[in-house]
Input
Amino acid sequence: MNIKRWAVRVALAMFTAATASGAAAAEIGPLPAMKYDARKAALGKRLFFDKRLSGDASLSCSSCHSPEQGYADGRALSEAYPGTRGFRNTPTLINTAHKKVWFHDGRIGTDLNDVTRDQITETIWMNMDMRIMQERLKQDPVYVRLFGEAGLGEPSNGGARTAIPEYLKSLTSRNAPFDTGRMSAAARRGETLFRGKAGCIACHNGPLFSDQQPHNLGVPENPEVFAEPLRHVAFIAFANFMGIANYMNLRRDPGAAVRTNEPQDLGSFITPTLRELKHTAPYMHNGMLHTLAEVVRFYDQGGGTDPNKDPRLKRLGLSQAEQAELVVFLEALSGDPLTGPEHVLREEIDLKYPAIADWWNARN
Output
């Protein structure tokens, strides 16, 4: 093992150990209040729904993160930039601003500015050259006004990467029965199982119901990733870019191994949040489980089959009634849909503005 890889492994081990030591006493509870700048968020909302942020102007952020689908897309595997298709399930963006690590493999652990840049610029997602995006924004008089009102100067890619995360801060769960204390008796029994016999709280803890750590559950591979050419192309391109060895022959999602390049990390994925589950089916990193009842049954059976499966996964022996109560509790973690005008841009983006005269020398 070279020095660089050794250093990465040590850092990850220290982070995992520190998190694990706190996880033993971790609890579940409401999300903390999220403050955000309303003017920056208003700008970010328009950017989120603007297809001009993709290379061929065919996709906006909302194309894959639909408000009506809990800011996911309702598909097992995501769509992607024309000419490719996705190879993982689209995660919800609700509460994403509360996270410390992003994507199913946890490959970004800095901030939402970096997440925004990644999704806009990566070839298989929105395929945008941010220099071109900046010029598109500078030509739209509405953006000239909104950037100024938000205190971000003239339209720029840096300003866009500031405004979109500010909008994402507004996407926080509201009025979930768990948070309001209005759970049914069945849901309360499900919570008791969650904390006790079912053992879910071991990994699904904290306000997000996630320890934000990678674990291997033995989730079966989605065969469509390897059978559907456009999905396989995207998978190969991603694995190549992330430096995965022998990527042309890879027949499983590397998961957290993109961070370490260690074989024992293949098939490990970040614990997902359990909030908003009612709105974000299907489940798991590849959409292989379609209902919450299937998810609970999967855990009751001790997960799937994998040599690196987390040893804490054992058969639970839950009765049918207990499984049903656990599902009711999980449903109580979902709040009001965030589909009102505060969060969703309803007006059409007007593209019929006059061309800039003497564009080469123009300054906003």
User: Anything to note?
Assistant: The first strand starts at residue 214 and ends at 215.
